[in-house]
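Backbones bend. We report:
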Amino acid sequence: MSSFFAFLHHVAAFALVAALAVEFVLIRGELTAATARRLARADMILGLSAGVLLAVGLLRVFYFEKGAAYYFHSATFIAKLALFALVAVLSIYPTVKFISWRKGIDASSVPAIRHLIRLELAGIVLILLFAALMADGIGFLG
């Protein structure tokens, strides 16, 4: 069962990164009604995959793998979780804008959205770094 949850965790993580990459590419082009719809769909996939990633990840921490006591004694795990929360917060503004564009596109928010998506991608890169460090046992607190 542990392998299945690891698989789900990885699929959700790859889906999240793919959806964010699609947003990054789409927001760089001309903003049309069709592009706005694509952005909203990509953002929905991003949100769903983030929810699955978090739920499955927490199930792995509390019920599989090494247990919550092990993970919560890891500075790299805590940093990874904090970065995940930060990326989630950064994604709120673009999500709200994408939803509001159903009524009409407001291109004035595009530069801010581009910046936030770049920050989200940087956060994901750092999450991957902390995951690798954690896998090597780096950052465990006495």
The mean pLDDT is 94.
